[in-house]
Every structure is written in C-alpha cells, then in structure tokens.
Design goal:
Helices cover 48% and strands 20% of the residues. The chain is α+β, with helices and mostly antiparallel strands. It has 4 domains: 53 residues, no CATH class; 62 residues, no CATH class; 64 residues; 97 residues, Nucleotidyltransferase, domain 5. The strands form 3 sheets. Strands 7, 8, 9, 10, 11 and 12 form a 6-stranded mixed β-sheet that branches. The chain has a 3-stranded antiparallel β-sheet with strand order 1-2-3, with no helix packed on it. Helix 5 packs across helix 7 and helix 8 crosses helix 10. The N terminus is likely disordered.
C-alpha cells in the first residue's frame, strides 16, 4: 500500500510512503529517471549473486575440512587446529602451517616439501617405538611374575629343581586365561640366575642403605664346606627403626681357613660395601681357636687395630 501526497501549491513534488515505510521524494520532472531498464536491474542482481557465491567459495577454500583426515595420504600426520580453521598442524614436523589461501593445495604443498619428507621417515620410526614399548611392558610383567615365583621358593627354602614343577603346574592351570602365565619359563638355570643377578643385589643394596643410616653394627662370619668348596658368609646385625635387624651382605669362597685369610676377607667385605670400621662394635663367630684364640686369631687381629671391639657370638649359634 502506498500513500501519495502533494506538496506545495504547484503540485510539482509528491511524497510516497511505501509498504516498507520508506519515504520517497518524487518529482514529476524526474519520473523518467525512476523507470530504469529491466535489463540493467537483471545485470545488477546477477552480478551481486555471483559476487556472493565467489566470496562463499573463497571462504570455504581456506578452511580445514575434517574429511581430509579420512584421506590415507593425510591421516597419519595431518591434525586439525580447533581454535583456528585457517591453519593445520603437521604431527611429523611438529608445526602448524596456513591454509588460508590455498586450502587443500596448501596441504599438498606442505606434504611435498623436503622437510616434511625427511620428518616422515623418523615419524614412522616413532610409531614403531610405540609398539615396542607395549611389548616391553608385557615382558616386564612376565619378568616380574618369574621373579615373584623365585623369591617365594627361596623364601620358603624350596630347591631350584622344584621351581620348574611349580611353573609347569601354573602354566597348565592358567594357560588359556593368562598370556603372562602362558609365557613364563623359569627352571633350574633361570631361577639361579634371577636369585644371583637380580634378587640378591637388590636386597643387599636395601640392607646396606638401612645399615648406613643406623651407623653402628656388628659383623658375624662362619666357614661352610660343601665337597671341596669352602665358603664364608658374612652377616651384619644392627638397630633399625623396626628393631634389631640381621642380614647377609656377602658370600665368599676361599680355600684358606687361616686367621689372616679370614681377617683379610672381613676387611674387604666392610670396605666394598662402604661401611666404616669405626662404627663396627663387635665381631661374632663360633668359638674356634682360629676365630678367638689368645695369641693369633681373627679377633686378635681386629683388636690390634681397633681396641674398642667387643667379642660377640655368631647369630647362627
């Protein structure tokens, strides 16, 4: 609906109020200017639509498309940047690059660069490392299970030969339900290796660390013969935060059972474990003359150098 009103006495001008509430000032003299050719209007409309479509295409071209991640050429290294759709990230090069101007063309340009090709070689190696780490984790679990079995048997005085029987029984029971139990292999030879090379060093180190914190200690030793092999276990006793504690710190083999040889071995054990002689309060052993004789014994050799030492008794007696 339009309302037309004449203005002025001459009636030379009209005020036109359109449905859109637009006010137009029209003069009779300029009416011919309002009647533009239809072709010109169509041209203007067409050019406006084309311009909008071009702007939309340009905007779409310079943004990240998630469909690119489904492309096998891009999926392993290309990554979306959440906060900015005009850039992308390369996981191989550990950097971002702009796709504002070329879009997918910029992605291809980065992919064909020399730096990216070089980094992709090491990026593939890193993927292999991940799978190896998973395998290593599984091996660690198997090793821990084997060590637990061996510790249990040693703790209860079982022989290495019986270890194989225990392992075979465990594998038979849990073979179908546990990949770890299925992979355990721990017989006589391996059990001994775990005890000597893993468990013994670990527990000895813990014992020495506690002993160093306690400062004062006593040392006991004794000779043990098996066939033609003569060995000397050396044990310590000290006060810890949980009370009196005893432990084996060394096990030596020596065919000589003289006072000088035992004294030399005892000094070596003390020094090798970082203990201080001035913190040694007593020595303990059986009452054999080689250990506590009046004239020449292990005890007399100790007393010559450290007069403060007391005569003790081996914890085994």
């Amino acid at each position: 609906m339009s309302v037309v009103s004449n203005v002025g006495e001459g009636g030379g001008e009209n005020i036109i109020i359109t449905n859109d509430n637009d006010i137009l000032l029209d003069s009779e003299e300029d009416n011919h200017n309002d009647q533009q050719p239809e072709e010109e209007i169509k041209t203007l409309t067409t050019s406006t639509v084309v311009s909008k479509n071009n702007d939309k295409k340009k905007k779409t071209k310079g943004t990240f498309h998630k469909s690119w991640l489904l492309n096998s050429d891009y999926s392993s290294w290309l990554e979306e940047v959440k906060h900015d759709v005009t850039i992308a990230r390369c996981k191989a090069c550990l950097k971002t690059f702009s796709i504002r101007n070329g879009g997918k063309t910029d992605v291809n340009k980065h992919m064909s660069s020399k730096l990216h090709s070089t980094n992709m070689k090491s990026f593939g190696s890193n993927a292999l490392i991940t799978s190896v780490m998973t395998l290593t984790s599984e091996l660690d679990k198997i090793s821990a299970a084997e060590a637990a079995f061996v510790y249990h048997d040693v703790r209860h005085g079982h022989s290495y030969r019986s270890q194989q029987c225990t392992i075979n029984l465990t594998k038979a029971i849990f073979n179908t339900s546990s990949s770890i139990a299925k992979s355990i292999a721990c017989g006589l030879t391996k059990s001994r290796a775990i005890v000597c090379n893993v468990l013994a060093p670990f527990f000895t180190e813990n014992l020495i660390n506690e002993l160093l914190n306690a400062r004062f200690y006593s040392l006991s030793f004794d000779a043990s013969t098996k066939g033609t092999c003569k060995t000397y276990p050396f044990t310590v006793q000290f006060f810890s935060i949980v009370g009196v504690k005893r432990g084996l710190i060394s096990f030596l083999e020596d065919s000589h059972e003289s006072a000088n040889a035992i004294f030399k071995n005892a000094i070596a054990v003390i020094e090798d474990n970082g203990l201080k002689m001035e913190n040694l309060t007593s020595i303990g052993a059986d009452n054999a003359s080689v250990n506590f004789g009046d004239h020449h014994s292990v005890y007399s050799l100790f007393k010559e150098r450290w007069p403060h030492l007391k005569k003790g008794q081996s914890s085994q007696y």
